[in-house]
Write a structure and sequence with these properties.
This protein has 168 residues and is α+β, with helices and mostly antiparallel strands. A 3-stranded antiparallel beta sheet has the order 1-2-3. Strands 4-5 form a two-stranded antiparallel ribbon. The radius of gyration is 18 Å and the shape is globular. The N and C termini lie far apart (38 Å).
């Protein structure tokens, strides 16, 4: 988990401090009927204060290959790509992580290998990058207001309200 903690620290440095926002990851063991945990599923979530505003995989429909897709979701690579993107490109960029597919190798010989693209990939990634863009202290207020007006991600409005509503 040390790699994620470094990534977490880097992305959180970009967030406006008024948000008290955190990007978190937990791993949950998958226990088959024999009782032994052979693998785990990561859970990524974004919190503002104590409220979770984005939660993967809970908030998204993950298709039949759910454990495969959850484990190979590319979210950490997406966060790294976001961090490395120049500020001038952030609001218009299509991130490579928005398009994810994985291969399924059958357990029996003689069956062909298949490639699946999960339809929720785009929704998961777009909503996460939209959250990051809205919380990013490097993005100017005017540009952010124009961009946010076009966004259909519900968390954008939540973050904009917290970030730009005067504190009493």
């Amino acid at each position: 988990m040390s790699k994620f903690s470094k990534l977490k620290k880097e992305i959180e440095k970009l967030f406006d401090q008024r948000l008290d926002m955190q990007f978190c990851c937990s791993a949950y063991p998958m226990r088959p009927k024999n009782g032994y945990a052979t693998r785990s599923i990561p859970r990524f979530y974004v919190k503002i204060g104590k409220d979770i505003i984005w939660d993967f995989p809970k908030d998204f429909e993950v298709e039949p290959m759910s454990s495969e897709w959850c484990n190979r979701n590319g979210i950490s690579a997406l966060v790294r790509e976001y961090i490395d993107t120049p500020v001038a490109e952030l609001l218009e960029k299509e991130f490579k992580g928005e398009f994810k597919s994985f291969k399924h190798t059958p357990r029996r010989k003689g069956h062909p290998e298949k490639t699946y693209t999960n339809q929720s990939d785009m929704e998961v990634v777009k909503s996460l990058t939209d959250i990051f863009k809205t919380a990013d202290r490097r993005v100017g207020k005017q540009k952010l207001y124009i961009w946010a007006a076009k966004s259909d991600t519900p968390q954008v409005e939540i973050i904009m309200n917290v970030r730009f509503t005067p504190q009493e």
